[in-house]
Amino acid sequence: xxxxxxxxxxxxxxxxxxxxxxxxxxxxxxxxxxxxxxxxxxxxxxxxxxxxxxxxxxxxxxxxxxxxxxxxxxxxxxxxxxxxxxxxxxxxxxxxxxxxxxxxxxxxxxxxxxxxxxxxxxxxxxxxxxxxxxxxxxxxx
Length: 141
Known about the structure:
Helix content is 48%, strand content 4%. By secondary structure, it is mainly alpha-helical. The chain has a domain at 78-140. Strands 1-2 form a two-stranded antiparallel sheet. A hairpin with a 2-residue loop joins β1 (24-26) and β2. It is flat. The N and C termini lie far apart (97 Å). 0% of the residues are buried.
């Protein structure tokens, strides 16, 4: 079957439109070359982005607030195995593992004894250390 030339084939042979870059006005002159345009743009950026000239004295009240320990943290509370079980049951089992390669499916299959052990591990880190804790550890040694 002979194919006749279509109008599209004739259109492809026509010269394509050239991309032109218009000149930029730099002060009272026009920047036409790429070098002149880049220099004009550099001058524009250096005039726009200047350091802030504000010389405000530092407020001692604000400095004292910023230097406080745990300024945005709420007090931590104890966890229970039941609370861990609730959190784990709400997790999406198809979620991909993190850098430790522990998946939600693995956590859901943990036995209760393991959850109790996790709460025992986490709870002392949440409690503030007191003399009573040190005494208990000294008796164990």
